[in-house]
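Lecture 7 notes. Example A: sequence first, then its structure tokens.
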Amino acid sequence: MSAVRVLAAAAAVLLAALLQVSVLSQVAWHGVVPNLVLLVVVAAGLVRGASFAMVLGLAAGLLLDLAPPADHVAGRWALALVLVGLVAGQVNREARGSAGAVVATVAVCSLLGTTVFALTGALLGDPITSVGSVLGVVGLALLLDVVLTPLVLPPLMAMFRRLEPARGLAWQR
């Protein structure tokens, strides 16, 4: 793995986390913000595959878990984003290019990530007001992530594609 790819992925995660925690938190809708970090992990999974996206998801999740104003047990976002990276990386190579498959992948990954985060909170004793409120938060998070997909994923996917090494044998280049 090249240092440039690692630095670019780290910069994308850091920028997404900063925007999510500082800017988007100011315009939260019922306390829910779009998960830009999740979108970075999905883009990495769609372009680079599951292994890269899972490692990126672990690092990005730990960053979210430790970034202020985190008020939950560390590791919950890390687990959720590792699973998101796995799912996004498993999308069929042929389907990855279509806009419908990208939006569907974001929807599934948003649902998965937010649900895993909420369920681990319930298992670890976070106070949950009701199942209905959790479902409302998960649905709203899914909607916000899907709405931002056309704005966020194309440039991220282009960046990850550009950093992908040329495929094929050396004598074919």
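Example B, a different protein, same format:
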Amino acid sequence: MAQSPRTAPLFLRPASYRQRRRRDAARLLPVIGVFLLLLPVLWAPQDTFYRDTAPDGIYLFVVWAVLIGLAMLISRSLTATDEDDPEAPGDQGLGQ
């Protein structure tokens, strides 16, 4: 009897799934950052004619620092999983 061709598994391994979600988070972080940095433009003006820029400046600095921290955490988790994953694409099949 002939064996049926192997099909890909329906579900991914948990480690592979987490790695893909981390990559998705790394791709989505700039989009979220642009939205958060442009958010003060949408805030309603105060009762005075001149806008108070101190809260906006503090908000922008905090968002900037949080984005840097998130990018650092995501990049560390991506490099750690890439080195630990034996099935990660790379130079494995080149006769080494």
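Note on Example B: The two ends are 37 Å apart (CA to CA). Helices lie at 14-42, 54-84.
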